[in-house]
Design a protein that fits this description.
CATH superfamily: Succinylarginine dihydrolase
Number of helices: 16
Strand content: 15-25%
Shape: globular
CATH class: Alpha Beta
Distance between the termini: 42 Å
CATH architecture: 5-stranded Propeller
Oligomer: single chain
Number of strands: 15
Bound molecules: N~2~-(3-carboxypropanoyl)-L-arginine
Amino acid sequence: MLREINFDGLIGPSHNYAGLSLGNIASARNAGGRSYPRAAALQGIEKMRTNLRLGLAQGVFMPQARPNHAWLHSMGTSAQDADALLLANSLSASSMWAANAATVSPAPDTMDGCCHLSVANLMTMPHRSHEWPGTLAQLKIAFADPSFFIHGPIPAPFGDEGAANHMRLCAEHGAPGVEVFVYGVAGGPFPARQHIEASKAIARHHGVNDALFVAQSEAAIAAGAFHNDVVAVANEHVLFAHELAFEGQQSFYAQLRSRLPELEIIEVPANRISLADAIQSYLFNAQLVTLPQGGMALILPTEAQENVKVWAWLQDMIGKNGPIRRLFPVDVRQSMANGGGPACLRLRVVCDPAKVDPRFLVDEAKLDAFANIVAQYWPEHIDPAQLNEPDLWQALETAHIALLKAANLEVLITAHQHAPQDKII
Ligand code: SUG
């Protein structure tokens, strides 16, 4: 039976605020601040529990080894010798944002009937560009069953940021869908991270039967929507989007309607919620999910509840008895302060859960075990000035290995673990 599984990136022990993401307003605003990795990871675990308690299937990806010694070595340096910026780039916990791990085309959408996953190259941002080998190692284990097909990254110079720029619209999860690939052309002062050639290449690799390509609006990127999932989210036959999310929005809607007659669009007008409020509150970076008892819910950041205009609009929407019936605010403030909301933290995969390596699926007991490791090993806080301390690197390594052991995923230690510099190829 095909189900939607949300795989969350477990927030790694090096979570910090180095302000590395140009065009990501929260990351810039909090640059230099003190981070709280332990609280961050526990918030992420609580979000996974919220999903489980709603009766949804929940998966997890492991954090990656940081600093990334192999990457520093490939840059001709080491953690000891790297300058502060390169070191910060090697230390980011950014793989927590699993929406950027890969693009997923479920089996009903593809020509060969496999579920295809393409690991994202994330090449626009240096700190994210070295995530993909560690992500690929996990995808290959989690989805080793022959019903999946895993693809490597799209080559340079075509930036690809994964599912954050991809939406799937369908009558129900198990039915064939229209896959919408959203790319950027211009973003005012900010980079457009998703290149159309990367999107088209992925659609070809996956053999997507019904693919649609649409550009993000320049205004949205310039306002801080560095990924489409900051201004739009889709689930089954519902598209929830800001009025200024796309270029040629009306013709995009018309094309979608002609392919999916049951489509329902919930558009938020700019005169009710400005792009600035949408981005500050991360209203659209919600998980839009179908509840087992029927009806849809939004799992939103608490910031959306605190924004008076946003919450008022949401109350109006719920009152109209449309497809979205319930709201569940979750506290992921530590991730939010780096521009990552509830939807950024998860990768959706529609598949048969029995075909997934069970080490990547969680229940409450497994989350308890992970929470215990986090409570014991994750730093309580990290100040930017600490990033060059060998004691911190050692603590991060110990924490990472303890988690992989608890997850029975020691195999990942050899795949991308801390090795002395001279042993790295
Ligand atoms: O790529 N933040 C991430 C946030 C990713 C959000 N993901 C989705 N929208 N799906 C990014 O900008 C901040 C890191 C720093 O500044 O240290 C960061 O990488």
